[in-house]
Amino acid sequence: MEAYSLSQLSEETLRALVTLHIQVGVADEWTNMQKGDLTPAEGAQIDYLKSILRERDLVVMNEATLWARAIYPLLVLAEQAYIQAWTGVSLKATYPNFQLEGEADGALAPAAAGKPQQPYLIVREAKRGVNASDPQIQLYGEMLAAAWLNWKGGADAQSGTTPTARQEIFGCYTVSENWTFVRGIVGGIETEKPTFAVEFSRVYNGLFEAECIVQILKAIVAKQLGCDTSLRVPKP
User: What is the DSSP letter of 69?
Assistant: First the structure.
């Protein structure tokens, strides 16, 4: 079985491993996700964040500083219940014909004993430089790994019963302060060549549309909290 590093994954390799379907255009689902209300505290934090970022030159800011100032604070605002924002999340998946292993820049995932569990949303920060890899392809690989982890976690939680082979997983990649969201559906996880269908949001600017970004993040978390039973404690 071949093992692939997420950081070195190419589109050619990815298409050899899975049947990739990319939706043309922007799905209406992202607009529907922007209808949630923000609390006064969340609004105040967003206004403060935007006021600070307007005073900074984000174009020349290094990646680590940009992540800390412009990306991670918005992820934190989406935290609900046991779902937390994380950085440097390790991912490893073993599909029937291939393995994926690497690290995501960030994620929204349940916390258990101070560690992240199966992630709901994967975040990939685009790296700069002529040798930088395509953030979309890396994000696809990370979403595939996360979907497998969620599928495996469902099997473990159900005491060995077969979980659904169709997994929904969300991701986003950031370029400077701009965010693009991706919804993925992974099917046929136990087959030799799984299917992976993805659909994109439009690009959201973190300086002018931070409210929309947080609304989408919160909607993703709320959706998963409503259907996730893998981490619920069974009643005696």
Answer: I
